[in-house]
Specification:
By secondary structure, the protein is α+β, with helices and mostly antiparallel strands. The chain has 2 domains: 52 residues, no CATH class; 98 residues. Helix content is 54%, strand content 12%. Strands 2-1-3 form a 3-stranded antiparallel β-sheet, with no helix packed on it. A two-stranded antiparallel ribbon has the order 4-5. It is elongated, with a radius of gyration of 31 Å. The termini are far apart.
Amino acid sequence: MRASALSILLVILSIGSLQAETIYRWVDKEGVVHLTDQYEKIPVADREKVKKETFEDSSTAAVPARVEPSEKRDEGGVTNPLSQNEAYWRDRARPWKEKLAEAKEAYENANKKYMERSEQLSQRKFGSRTQYKMDIMEMEKLNGERKKYEAQMNEANDSLKRISREAEEANANPEWVR
């Protein structure tokens, strides 16, 4: 009798373990990672951030362990949960700073050419209709270059502002991004 009861229990447990298991994972506003297998336990405000993980065979699948936020210290020695170190934030900002510097230099060169050509044209008293059209086309080309580099500068500035906001949200030292 005990052997058959034990056999039945083992069959029930093995059937249960062959079913797929769903784990819901999300990060709250403090940066703490949460895991649950019950959707109802997820706060309504965090449900849009949930990532659903399904494990086909829960007896062999490794259920992810609770992930604690890393704690790093800023230059003042203050511990900031989930903040990255200085190198991380500087690496995030560096390519955009380089793009901004390149775009500024290119814009200044294009603007200088535009202004020089504009000055030359303003001093010209005579010219053919064809020459006038060619001058207009050249000015439009130079102005297009200026606009292109201006757009690149705006993109780099916007990206640097976004990274700066992310650093502030992570309680990182804002000087690391500037």
